[in-house]
From TrEMBL:
Topology of the protein relative to the lipid bilayer: Multi-pass membrane protein
InterPro entries in UniProt: Cyt_c_oxidase_su4_prok, Cytochrome_c_oxidase_bac_sub4
Main location per the UniProt record: membrane
Subunit structure, interactors included: Heterooctamer of two A chains, two B chains, two C chains and two D chains.
Record-given protein name: Cytochrome bo(3) ubiquinol oxidase subunit 4
Family under the similarity heading: Belongs to the cytochrome c oxidase bacterial subunit 4 family.
UniProtKB keywords: Cell membrane, Membrane, Transmembrane, Transmembrane helix
Species this chain originates from: Buchnera aphidicola subsp. Tuberolachnus salignus
Cytoplasm among keywords: no
Segments crossing the lipid bilayer: 7-34, 40-62, 74-95
GO BP: any one term: aerobic electron transport chain
Length: 100
């Protein structure tokens, strides 16, 4: 049964993760919109933010902490990275070929 203490502990991790992701997304958005830097630097910032957010999602929402030693958690994590990698490269390929 969930008590007040258990609910606070249960919600603490997702709230912290959400706040970190909100700060990262806001920083990246304003850096891209108002940053006076080259296209390459902006692309690197987006890619770095992408990978940092993947790890934050895994740590705060999927709880890949101490169970990381288990075989199936590793397999599912690798499969997730494979799918994300395919989606990411597919999106880049589509955006590159859009300029007619």
């Amino acid at each position: 049964m969930l008590t007040k203490k258990n609910i606070f502990f249960f919600l603490k991790s997702p709230v912290i993760g959400f706040l970190i992701l909100l700060i990262l997304t806001t920083f990246t958005f304003f850096f891209i919109i108002f940053g006076n830097c080259s296209y390459i630097v902006k692309k690197i910032i987006i890619i770095l933010n992408f990978f940092v957010q993947i790890f934050i999602h895994g740590y705060y929402f999927i709880y890949v902490k101490k169970e990381f030693k288990r075989f199936w958690n590793i397999i599912s994590l690798l499969f997730t990275f494979l799918i994300i990698f395919i989606i990411f490269l597919g999106s880049l390929w589509i955006m590159k070929n859009l300029n007619h």
